[in-house]
Write a structure and sequence with these properties.
By secondary structure, the chain is of the alpha+beta class. About 15% of the residues lie in helices and about 40% in strands.
Amino acid sequence: MVMVRTAVTGGKHKTTKLVFLCVALLGFAFIADLLWASSSSSSSSVYQSTSRTIVLPSFQNTTAAPALPKDGTVKGSNKDALRQRKLSATFADLPAPELKWEKMAPAPVPRLDGAAIQIKNLLFVFAGYGTIDYVHSHVDVYNFTDNTWGGRFDMPKEMAHSHLGMVTDGRYIYVVTGQYGPQCRGPTARTFVLDTETKQWSDLPPLPVPRYAPATQLWRGRLHVMGGSKENRHTPGLEHWSIAVKDGKALEKEWRTEIPIPRGGPHRACVVFNDRLYVIGGQEGDFMAKPGSPIFKCSRRSEVVYSDVYMLDDDMEWKVLPPMPKPDSHIEFAWVIVNNSIVIVGGTTEKHPETKKMTLVGEVFQFQFDTMKWSVVGKLPYRVKTTLAGFWDGWLYFTSGQRDRGPDDPAPRKVIGEMWKTKLHL
């Protein structure tokens, strides 16, 4: 009896040990699976956070990602292909129709971060960097009728040389704040008006505080100035001011505070169409002056380029509209109105996710105001930022800016003064 009891007890111990071993193995597998999932989720969230402004419509992704093997592993060329797919979704050129571009007479000087206003058949081109150490302080005029440059005249000595806010009523050009001097010098709050018929300049009340590249437009009898970068050149400004103007003169002594813009920053397109005010694209952050530098040498800082589109209407509330096909900045004078749409030429998008270099844009975008839909309507001769655009007699023109290093390198290189045109069929 004792021997039987002992044998049974030993069998029970063996069975119990086997059960515990199985449970332990299952628990280990479960914990490992949880850890893997957590790691995968964390990795995914990091990628999304670094690319949070990259929201591309489905039509842009024309190349399908390679399929994973059944066992879920990624090896060799498949792994490289997937990596390239992720990178290209962040900064790559979008599919676009080819346009036939014609090279015209170049501008008298190359310009970066200049400004331009079209009045009838004339394109007034202002200021800008010649090089990082030299800025222009004059205006050149391009005549679309005979495709020639001429009529150069000087700007006021106190007027900013880049990052200007600018708009016209068809005769008078209102020039608001901007950066004074080369490199990354400080902004000015000074505001001016140019009478394009007499070439005479006059003052307006200064902006409450200086700004770099604020969104600027005339709307319902008032000059509106929004966003831009604050005095340190990097911090986005949300403030929005307006002042009543007529025939090149201010009807009020002070600027009025308006509803802040939802997202601040410089280098955006700002237009009025059908009594609606639109602000398109832009960025948060910019280069800053290196601390202690006697020449205010530009020092690189982080930037976030976005595709946001906002509209202000009768309710005086900002409404969010469909975003651009990809994030785009440095487009404040790179747009024209054609029929019921805005056409935007070039710009900059998010930095390359590995090299961190600035990435230029080589597409022409169109936004239909009636349908509120974006499309990519063409390719530029090369990628380029801060272009100065015009439209005349069915032809789309652009001049100046900073172009890419070549077809395979979208990073910026040469400041240009070239003028191009293409027949636009929309």
